[in-house]
Every structure is written in structure tokens, then in C-alpha cells.
Records
---
Amino acid sequence: MRLPRIPVFALSVLVALIFGLLPMPVWAAGFKPWWLALVMVYWSLESPQYAGLGRLFLIGLLADVLFGTLLGEQALRLCILGFLLLRFRARLRFFPMWQQSLAVLALLLNDRMVVLMVRGLSGEGLPPWDFWIAPWIGMALWPWLFLLLDSVRLSARGKA
Amino acid sequence: MNGNNRSGPMFGEGSSTLLLLLYLALAIVLMVTDYRTDALRKVRHSASLLVQPLYTLASLPKQISEQLSDDWRSHEQLQAERDSAEKDLLIARAQLDRLQSVQIENQRLRELLGGTRGLQMGVQLANVVDVDLDPFRHRIQLDVGAQDGVREGLALIDASGVVGQVLSVAPTRSTALLISDPSHGVPVQVVRTGLRVVAFGTGETDRLRLPNIPQSADIRVGDALVTSGLGGRFPAGLRVATVANVRPDDTRLFMIAEATPTAALDRSGQLLLLWTTEVPLQTGPPIELADPAALRAVPTGSDAIEARAGETR
């Protein structure tokens, strides 16, 4: 019964990582959302046993290796995100979709602050203004991503 | 996995906070170690081998679309492209011929001076892998790595100027830092006046910043900037940028200039990796007395640009 659900989780992480790597034209560089976070928000809300802090940490490390960020940067960001989600999960789950989107925006903006802090401390200057676009794109994508992942997960479970 | 709680949202708040703090501490320790020391380089190196297939997967869509557009290109288009390429080649050849005579003259003068050090440049073609690592860090992936002889710190150029330098090397891939990255600086020289400055990246691909230029310095809009060869990373004389504007800085004691890179920094296409090997100092008997065969033995690889760009100061 539970077996076919694990591939859906792994697959969604894999696709999120690959989407993160897809090239964008230079002018649209800031528009790329943090796919990994969006997918993790989904799993934290819907079946939190797949998105425990330990697992988020490991996935973050994998992303760090892949994207060449400081080892631990995305792990830290994902852990903060996961903790907040776990904390407010009971409320977030029963929000209407638009409120959930707003919550996702808040989480992603908070994450941007964390990035700013980490990169500031490692001696990188202030990023350009389009650094702040990605959370809004994430918010706009959230409902669609939610519906997509939900249908994929439910149909995978239905088959078993 | 150790961190998952089967009890769902109802587990004790305290334990999850503790867990969070534990992971945060772990992440911070990792980051500081990674930032300050080289201890994690080996780990990163071997881990990057594991994720290679992901890069390949991510660059597939772009490759396929390029392949398709290549296939669909019309006969006339190809013909026109070939014609213009042929013309470019002709012009480049003519320029090269002229350069060669200058180079021979240069070499003769150098020999007259006796024993100035020459640098030999080797080149290697590298393709940019179409993956986007981080939109706010100007880095690119190259499809050559340690197995192809790539080392950290090699200069990276395209047909019209300096692009960046190699930052880290995996066995089959390497990552390069573009000159437009905010953390990158390249020592440059104004061609017209010989003024030496440093061009820093700004985080925008079409702009470099040249701070702290003395008020008395002679620098104008339109001046060409080439690498000065100071610092030893970039060979001297490569084109870098053109000055776009000059204005006094906030202190009014210095001037600050902005320049537009000549290379196409939009992270795609083919690039050249440049490396310089020092021709060993010629010590021993004076050149005239030395065995002429030994002099010729100075390596001149067939695929190497035999430009002896020496530092003459």
C-alpha cells in the first residue's frame, strides 16, 4: 500500500532539482522559483512523514552539491522552511487556496531573508532587485503545483 | 531516515525545536567549514560525480531544441551563414599574417635583450553546459574537467574577450566564474594610456565597475580595456571591456568608471580555455654559445598558439 508512494516523492524531488537547473534567458533570471521548496511545502502539508527535518537536511545537501552553493546553505533553508510548516501545518492545511498561496509567499520571502543573511556573511554584496521576484512566482505557481502533485499522488495510491 | 516523526503534527513541540536547532547548528558548521577550509573539497568532489547525470538531464531540452532548429534550418540560411563565416575567416587570416610578422620581430627584439621570460599559451575548446546554477551568481558549467587537464584558475575567453576563470574542477565537468560576478575582479589596463585599474563584476552581465581611479588619470568613454597580466591569472593583452561612462565617486577624491564587457557573457556557446606555461628561464651559457638544437627544444606544441606574451617590465 505504501510502496508506490515513495517513487512519487523521489520523482517529485528529482524533477524539482532538474527544473532548478533548466537555463533561463538572462533577462528572466530572477523569475525562476525555488522548485524544491514548493515541492517540499506540498509534502510537508500532505504527508509530513516524508518531509521530516532529517530528510529535508539531506535533500538540501544534495541540492548544495548540485548547485554549487556553500555546503549546508540549502539544507539550512529547507530545515527552516520545514520547521515553520510543521509548526503551522494544522492551520495551513485547512486554509482556502488563496490563503495558502499567501502563506507560501511569506515562507519564500522569509527564505530570501535567510539567503541574504548567509550570502551577506560569506561576503557577497546585495543582490539586484529581481532577487525578490522569485517568491511571487512561487506564490502564483503554488495552486497549480498543489493540484498537480495531489492528482499524481492520489492516482499512484489508487493503483496499488 | 532518522528525522521523520510518524506521530504527525501532534508530537511534542519541544523535541522538534531541539531537532531544528541541531540541524541548524550542523548546517552552520558545514557552511563555515566549507567557506573557511578545504576540508570538504574531497567530499564535494566525489559527491559531484553522483549528480552528473542530473546535469545531463537538465541540459537535454535545450540540446534537443537546438538540434531541431539545426535540422530545420533552410539551405539558403546555411549558405548565407557559410559565406559570412568564410569572409570572417579571410579577414582573420589576413590579420594573423600581419601579427605573425610582428611576432617574429618581437621575438628578435627579445633575443637582443637576452633572456626575458616568454610565456606560452595553450588553448582548449570547452562547451558551456546549458544548466543554470544560480541566477544571482554568475557561474557556468563547462563540459571539460580534470580528465581533460583543466585546472583551477585557468582563464576563459571567447572570440571577443575575457569571459571568466575556472573556479572548481570535477573529473568531467568544471565550474567557471564570469567576470561579471560581484566577487570577481580582473586587473586591466587602458590601451590608450597604459593606466592600470581593476575591473570588478557588478552582478549584471553588461556592466563592470572600475572604482578608485585617481582624478588625474587619463581615462575616457570609449577607451578599450585589456588584461594587464598583473596577478598572473590572465595573460596580458586580452580584450576585456570598453569604458561606457566615467564620473566622480561619492568622495569626490577618485573617479569611478563603468565598462561594457566585450565578450558575450550570456552563458552559452563555445569558449576557449587558455593556459600559460612559462618557458623555463634560460640559464647557463649565453645564447650565442649554447647548442642551437637545445634552443629549438623549447616546446612548441602544434596546437598551441605560439604567442610569446612575455612580461617586459
---
Amino acid sequence: MTGPHLSLILLPTLRCNADCDYCFEVKTNDSLTLDRLALLVEKVLDYLEEDGIQNLTIYWQGGEVMMLPPEWYEQAHEVIQELAVAKDKQIDHALQTNLIGYTKKWNRILEQMFGNNLGSSLDYPNLHRRLPGSTPQEFTAIWRRNLQVAQEAGIDIGVISIPNPETFKVGAEGFYAYFVDDLGITDFQINTPFPGGPLNDAKKTYPLETDQLTQFLLDLADIWLKSGYGNGVKVGPFDELIKYFIEGNARLPCIWRDNCVNEFVCVDPKGNVAQCDCWVASYPDFHFGNIFSSSSFTELLKNSKARQYLQSRPRSLIQQEDCLACDYLALCHGGCPIRAYSTTGSLLTKDPYCSTYKSLFAHMEKHAAKLAQGRRPINREEGGQV
Amino acid sequence: MDPYIYNIPAALANAYQGKRVIVRSHDPYELAAILAETNPENLYYLQLLSLEADIGPLLMEGAFAPLDLVMSSPASDYPQLYDLAPLNAKYPVRVTMPVMPGFTKAVRLACSLNFAVKLAVTQPDPDLLQEMSEVLAYYLHHSTVSQPIEFFHSLLMAFVEEAPLNLWTIQEEDPALFRYIADQGEETIFPRLAAAGVEQKLPFFLETFIMKLLVEEGECSTCKFINTCYGYFKWPRKDYACEGVKALLKTVKKAAHDLRQDIAAYHKPSGEDRP
């Protein structure tokens, strides 16, 4: 038993220094003040206490988090720590940034608050990430330069990458080599794109063609298993799937939890509360309420009709879709609500990448069985090592 | 030390302090209060009898004990299990459900939510045996099932370890080990055995029952699973034909044999044949 845990996706600002084609957030100039942050954290801690939750992880996302200066985070960290100690709660922090605004000035807070870790994103080839009025190539060049500076400072960087049709042309081998050999990234994760937020030309191509996507993922998994598995390279979600099939448990991504509503919640700088960043930034009809105008975060969550509706999704899917008969229900539970809603207009449909997930699960299951067969207990008399 | 585990209503918890108990209630508040007041070592299970109740009080409680969620209509109530999933972060959870048409849906969802399962079975008809057989295959061979499905799991382990264990014990119904305390407080036998008329000889119920079956030279007298089953499926009707049940037990035994072989091969020094 790990005990109940809450993941708070906190958007301290909706300002952004990039202008990516597929961004699902409606950007504004809003940012959180330290006073409001203290009030927000206090309310969240009250909720933890009232619901018997001991641990909180704050996922700092934007907008772009580095639009606020490092000094702001230093003060924020102090404020939060003080409140956490007073309530006897454990709070961990994770940062997701596009790295464009990164300089060495960030290193101190990255070490103090984020344990020298950060998450970033880059696609290969990069078609959609860009600075305003600029090209993807320029974005990539700045990103790579800043990546190198951060790596030289000893910061561990995990990268999220979203495939596109050009990725499929490059192929899994070229893709893997780009991240691992060229960039020196040993921890990256593949996410699938979806047409969240206002529609544009880039989003009209989503969801991606699933046959191509599936083949790419299976190929990439094979390359990782051959070259990266056991050699210090983590590629999500393959690594956790292998762990799941060998050990029976794993930390699967949020899209595959039994009900993301039970574990995640998102707050934007204005205090709007919703399920995750896309919901809070682009779908006001799905807001749960406002943390600043509600007297209690517990009551806000408990009474929100939008939250209850989201919470009912897995229950509905197993009755209306084919999820209950699926061999991999335990791994997916119908997938991601925002991917379903932004693609079909209905929350009560399964994830549009269902067939890709199923193929991937079957593939990893098969590989895990082979890997498990290859394992054997250590015989100390034979000189085995622990 | 009192050898029995008592299944008691929550209202009588004070009267059974110091004894090992299964505490049952329809009310999560009541169970949470029991949890706060009882030595967790004495709590064999907390048994929640209403799945539509607000589980908030159980999530807030600081202590924990194994939790048994009792379903009455698994074929229709199975979607409710999603509402109970948060309990998993705090308790070892088991879902007990009657073997009735459509129960497989609840088994599949319970397993997918990482809940253990206990099948409350009496004398299944051929259709139910077919469902049980599918659930057994699901338990034995499905890679996403990581929690026990009882009675299959304990039986499999007993076969693997060649340990003496019978279905009455696995199903928590052996009167020599488990006692049921009715809501009014009288100590009695488990509801399934209500017509047994053995209240005065509870500790010897099984021995008496199995002796009768053997003396009558019925199906049990030649059954190779007699020491495992102990006539479990001959109650309440002695004329129940066990063919289908025996096929299930045979499958479990075969799986145990295969598992033993796999384990032995796994531990062979390198250089020898491995699977």
C-alpha cells in the first residue's frame, strides 16, 4: 500500500514564449502571485487532510513555467515548504518546461526544488514547435543549445516527444538514434497528439493514422529492448509496460490509470480547477470551479458536476464500449478522456488510439515473457552477483 | 487463545474485543470506527456489505485492515467497483461475489482494478460451471491478473505445496474455524449451512458430514479430490453431480503440476535444460 496520493498539475502562468501549432492551451497573460499561491496551497493541504491523503506532487507546467523568474520559484518553494511542515505533509515537485528560457540562473532552484530533474519536450523531426514568427528549426537549435548547458550542469532531463508523419518516414531507428546518440537523452517518452483546444491545420491531422503509429511504436520498442533496456535508457511507456508484465505492477502514465479523476487535478493561475491542463486552459464548460472563490477545495471537488461526469467515464465505457472484454482493461480502462473528447466530441467514448495501445500491450507482453524466461535466480555457489 | 474467527455485526464489536473477527456492516462510517478502536491484528477482515455507500470514511482512517467488499448482484453491480478503486491505495481489498449468471463481468473488472476475488459458490449448474471454467482459465493464464481469485488460488497453492487444505477452510465456512454471529448476537453456523442442524456439533460438522457421504458410497467414495473438497459441493443436495466441478479441480491440479515443473526447471543450475 503506497497510501492515497494527489498529483496537482499547477499552471503558475499561462504566458508562453513559444507558439507551437498543436498547443491545446488558450494562452493568456495571467500569472499566479505568491500570495495567491499560498492561499491555493493552503486549500489543497486542507483537502489532503480532510481526505486522508498524505502525499502531494506538484507538477509545475504552463503556459511556460520559465516565464516566471527563478527567484519566484525560490520564494514559492519557501512558502510551500512552510505550509507543508505545518500540516505534516510531504510535497514533491516536478517541472515541465520548453527549455527556451533556461539559463544557468535556474540551476540553484532546479537543484533545491526539483532534485536536479526537469522535463521538457521535443519532436523529431520538429514540425510544430516554434517561437512566435519563427521556424521549428530555430526552436530546435535553441532547445539543443540549452539542453547542452543543462546537461553540463548535471541536470537530468526527461523528454516528451510527439510523433508526426515525418517521424514515421525517419523511422524508429533514426528517431531512437537522434535522442539517445545525438542528444544524449537517456529518458524519453512518446505521447500521442490530439486535437485539443481551438482547431487549426495541424490539429486537423489528429488523431494520427493508427497503423503507421502502431508500427512506429512497435519498431521503437524493439530497438529500445535491443539497445537501451538494461543499459540505462528509459523509454516510456515501454519501460513501465515491461515492468508491469514482469513484476505485476508499474507506474503507468496518467492516460492509463483506472480513473485519472481520483489522482489528478489541475489549477490555472486564475484559480480555475479542472482535470488537467488541456481541460483547464481550453474547456471552461469542464471547469470544476474556482479554488479562490470556493471556501473549501474539498467541497469544490465533491460538488462539481463536471468532475462527477468525468469520474463516471470508466463506468460508462465498460457498459457501452468493448473495454470489459478487452484483455488489457487492467492497463488502460478506456484511455484518456481528453483524447476521446477532443476527437469525438463525447467524453463517454474510448481513447482514439485504442487499437495502437492494444497492439503495443500485446507486443510488450510477448517481450516481457521472453525476458522473464531468460531470468534465473542467482546461484551464489556459481559466483553469481547480487 | 480462542481458536475461532467470528463473523460479527459491527454493533457487537465491543463484545468480541480480543478475539479474531470479521466485522460486517453496510455502513463505512461504522467500519471506520471499528478500525479506529480495534487491534488491527485481530481484524481478519472488515466486510462492507453495501457497495453504493460513501467510502470516504474508510479512506480517511489512519489504520488499515484487509477489506472485503461483498457484492450481491455482480452481473448488474459490477460498474460500481470503479467507485471503490481508491480503497486500493489504502487497503488490501477483496471482492466477494456469488457465482450467478454474468458474474464474470465483475471478476474481470475486479481483477483489472487489482482487487482480489472470492467466489461464493454453492452447487453450480452447467452454465455456471462454464463461466467458472472461463474464470479459472482467466485466473491461470491471463497476464494482467495479479491478485488471487478464490477458491482457485488457495487450491492451486495447496496443490503446488502438497499442503492439506480443503474448500470449506478456503471459503471460510469450516465451523471448526469460523463462526457466524447473527445480527441479534446468537452464535450460529454460516448462512450457507443454515439447514444443517448441527449447531451442537459445530467443530465436528465436517468429519460427520464426510463420514456420512463415504458410508453412503456415493460419488465421494471414489473421488480423488475428496481430501480437497471434503464434500463441499454435496451441500445442501447430496445428489448434486460433481462431474463439472471435478473438471475444474482437475484443471487446477494440472496447473499446479505444470507450475511445480516450471519452478523446478527454473532452479536448475545453468547448463541443464531450461524451459
